[in-house]
Amino acid sequence: MPRHIAIIMDGNGRWAKQRGMDRVMGHREGVETVRRIVEECGKLRIPYLTLYAFSTENWNRPQYEVEALMRLMSAAIRSEVPKLMENHVRLNAIGHLEDLPQVCQEEMSEACQLTAKNDGLTLTLSLSYSGRSELKYCIRKLAQQAIDGAINPQDIDEQTITNSLYTNNIPDPDILIRTGGEQRISNFLLWQIAYTELFFTPVMWPDFDGQHLREIIYQYQNRERRFGKTSEQVQQENLDGTQK
User: Fold this and answer.
1) CATH number of the domain where residue 71 is located
2) Are strands 4-8 and 48-55 parallel, antiparallel or unpaired?
3) In the chain, which end has fewer C-beta atoms inside a 10 angstrom radius, N or C?
4) What is the pTM (predicted TM-score) of this model?
């Protein structure tokens, strides 16, 4: 089973337009999908789930839609805390959280604190998030440490960079899913998905459910993850591990 699933939740607005509804209604339905997928990951004992909830580029959307999204986000966080506690879900958030409206920041901070000791699924929301901005933040942090003499630039390796990212306490995703039919990464977890298995589905996010998730996990389990090695090497390592 995968340890970490990341999802680009795409298609809310198009789902609503296809039904003659305002785009905001698609986002409301999308919240229901989040609830379903969080519950499904809990049933499957997936330790980590990361959702691309709002990118830095999303601030360029029509103001009425952005404001509606912020209100919806704030209300959803507040209302879901009891359910998160009941299911032992620990809430986490990454991104430029300071860009969010004050009420959203407060609701998120309180929810993260209340669920901090839960020992089930870790649910991470990427809010006002940008993969490139995250890398910029990491580079600046390491550069300042080098200037201060805390680290030697020659000692910086992949693990040093990983430890300096927003996701330093979360394993890299095993699976990245994008709903809605588009086939691009859209500036999401650029460092972390170097060896992640990618899945693109035409299913719009409001229609995505537990069965879709299970089908993708099944496909994942039938892929061979080689990490630069040959198929023969991987098969031999698996055989050696079985014999032990």
Assistant:
1) 3.40.1180.10
2) parallel
3) C
4) 0.93
